[in-house]
Design brief:
The chain is elongated, with a radius of gyration of 21 Å. By secondary structure, the chain is an all-alpha fold. Helices cover 74% and strands 0% of the residues. The chain has 13 helices and no strands. It folds into two domains: 2-177, Serine Threonine Protein Phosphatase 5, Tetratricopeptide repeat (Alpha Horseshoe); 178-250, Alpha Horseshoe (Serine Threonine Protein Phosphatase 5, Tetratricopeptide repeat), CATH 1.25.40.
Length: 250
């Protein structure tokens, strides 16, 4: 139960980081000179909305976007941005409704960042099969280490560990210096009782982030499963130097 909770929390942190990055890219590219600027908002308000979104001031951005949509209910771009803001405010159902409205106005607005945000919404709603479908669409449009890792985490939540392993491996190939992708893949190996492979990935985490205790703790467990108790003991001692043993339930 504890390992499942940790995995869920790690996926939540990953989504938060990736979603924030998507917000910045989305607001920088979606409305360069049209949309809100030409319909329902002046140039200064347009710039203000994008700035508020980029700095995650979602409540203020929502107020301006509501005004823009009230002024022009055919403004698909405004619905896209409001959906993104609503997702940031943890209102996934309302966000999905706005995406649906926006795409009914203009199907060409369905970008990779729309799929990223819809993925977040479906995960928040615990509709993981729909989340998986959206992240697959995002990968098809623009693959990245982060998106492969997201897909791997969703597969883990669905208890499809072999599929997760394939996605984490794709993520490693795409981003070979992404420390916690190795950690996720190592955990996946461990869940499949592939302890030698898990140890190799935990070791890679330690090389990339030697001050982090989590990989030592997890590698110790893998060593124990292989009967390598002396190495397991050494790892636990290394972990103790970095944090309290009780924090990791050793």
């Amino acid at each position: 139960m504890k390992s499942a909770t940790i995995a869920s929390e790690r996926m939540s942190c990953l989504f938060t980081k990736f979603f924030a990055l998507s917000i910045i890219i989305c607001t920088a590219t979606l409305l360069p000179s049209t949309g809100l600027t030409a319909r329902g908002a002046n140039n200064s308000e347009h710039s203000l909305i994008l700035s508020l979104m980029q700095h995650q001031h979602y409540a203020d951005a929502l107020r301006h976007l509501n005004h823009a949509i009230e002024s022009d209910q055919g403004n698909g771009e405004a619905y896209i941005l409001r959906a993104t803001v609503l997702a940031g405010l943890d209102e996934p159902q309302a966000a999905l409704s706005d995406f649906k409205k926006a795409l009914s106005i203009n199907p060409k607005l369905e970008t990779v960042y729309v799929h990223d945000t819809k993925t977040k919404c479906y995960v928040d709603l615990s509709q993981l099969d729909l989340a998986l479908a959206e992240v697959n669409k995002a990968i098809k449009l623009q693959s990245s280490g982060e998106r492969f890792r997201l897909r791997g985490d969703i597969f883990c939540q669905l208890n499809k560990n072999k599929d997760a392993l394939e996605s984490f491996t794709e993520a490693v190939k795409a981003s070979p210096k992404a420390t916690w992708t190795y950690f996720d893949r190592a955990n996946c190996y461990a869940s499949l009782n592939m302890n030698k492979e898990a140890i190799a990935d935990y070791t890679q985490v330690i090389k990339l982030a030697p001050t982090e205790p989590a990989a030592y703790v997890s590698r110790a467990k893998a060593y124990d499963k292989l009967g390598m108790h002396d190495l397991a003991k050494q790892d636990r001692e290394q972990a103790k130097k970095r944090t309290k043993e009780s924090d990791f339930g050793m």
